[in-house]
Amino acid sequence: MRTRSAGRVALLAGLFLLLASGCGGSAPEGLGADAGGAQLMPDSVASPSATAAPVAIVVPTLERTNTPQPTASPSPTAAPPLSLVGSYPIDGDGAVQPQRPLVLAFDRALDLPSLQASLVISPTVTGRFEWQEPHRVAFYPDGGWDGHEAWQVSLDPGAYAADGGSLAQAWSVSFSTGGRGTPLPVLMYHHVEELGPDATEGKKDWTVSPQAFQQQMAYLQEAGWHSISSAALAGYLLDGEPLSPRPVMISVDDGNRSFYENGWPIIQATGLRPVMFLVAQFADYSGYVSWDEARALVAGGAWIGSHGYSHRSMHEVPLEELAWELSDSRAVLESELGVAIDAFCFPYGGRTDASLAALPGYGYRTGYSLNPTYWQRPEDPFFIGRLRVDYRTTMEEFAEMLPD
What letter does residue 82 receive in the DSSP assignment? Predict the structure, then answer.
């Protein structure tokens, strides 16, 4: 009995030492992980006089098996709404050319059948559709737009883009032929600065305060007006190119330093863009923008037109110097600023038969005057009217300058 008890004690001691040392080595031959753990020899086999050998305990290691999970389907992303970004005609145009098509431009490719089903023209007219670009379609009325005093075109949200996005909101325009003109307001600015109480009336004529200018630009932005270039205006009047809804040109004459320092930061903050009519010779004068500053204006989004080489009225320019004022001024501006120039602003509004005859040959498409109207005539592109904004202009008067 003592021999059997001693064997058991030795065996248990070996097991204790093995567990205390953290030994987890390989199972001895004949003892695998599939044996259900450690197996002890029966008592009858233990030798009464032998010292028990240590026994290794093998704990089977089970590898973690990740259960495959289904991949979640991404949530469908709705296409953004379709936007109409331009049209010919614009709303209220009374001088539509009878043979020109209705042109609609969108922010991306269009589904034509949905547009055809959603477009309503009154009075009813037959005609054909023509793709001009994937995002732009034209409708040519049979026989043109003659025969009625006024037309109305509407497009409901049933129209949608090729990607499925539907028209953001209903759209409509009214137009006619042979009327007063096209309602394209061109605002005219010169200086932007504070004036003292002793400022002359003449100085007030050509100046607005920074505060008033900020309020005017904020009004345009909030009311949905879109600033346009001289090239866009010419394209609309002369070629029937579409314009943004509620187009307005913000023209700034001379390149005065007061506008660069006070007005330019204000207009940049609104996202609107001005047309700067620069005088080539003035870049050398301290009161006006330098060439580097003019290049900064261009880089910031300003468009450029010519205001002559020396800012003389056309009535004061001899015929032999006409090319210098018209052609050379354009060439210098294009060379210095790296832009194409197609608009001329008449200094002091002075026009002559000689200058009017010469402008197209020198690459100009439009000419800007002091005629105080927003009604522009396609047949007279070198007599574009402009609306002067001055130091006395109230916000109510400013709003009334613009078409309804």
Answer: B
The pTM of this model reads: 0.81
- Closest to 368 in 3D by CA, of 342, 393, 389: 342
Q: Is residue 327 very low, low, confident or very high in pLDDT (cuts 50, 70, 90)?
A: very high
In single-letter form, the type of residue at position 81 comes to P
Are 364 and 289 found together in one domain?
A: yes
* Nearest Cα to Cα of residue 104 among 86, 116, 130: 86
Q: Which two tokens stand for residue 273?
A: 């863009």
Neighbours of 302 (CB within 10 A): 23
Q: Tell me the CATH number at 393.
A: 3.20.20.370
Pairing assessment for the beta strands 136-141 and 127-133 based on DSSP bridges: antiparallel
- Ranking 58-67, 181-190, 215-224, 250-259 by mean pLDDT, the lowest is 58-67
- State which amino acid sits at residue 120: V
The answer to whether 226 touches 249, Cβ cutoff 8 Å, is no
User: What contacts 293, CB < 8 A, 6 or more positions away?
Assistant: 260
Distance of alpha carbon 213 from alpha carbon 203, whole angstroms: 16
- At residue 77, the pLDDT reads 62
Amino acid found at 53: A
Q: Which of these ranges, 3-12, 179-188, 193-202, 278-287, has the smallest mean pLDDT? A: 3-12
CATH, residue 165: 2.60.40.3710
260 φ/ψ sector (left φ>0, alpha ψ -120 to 50, else beta): alpha
More confident residue, 385 or 147: 385
| Residue matched to tokens 């991949």 | 71
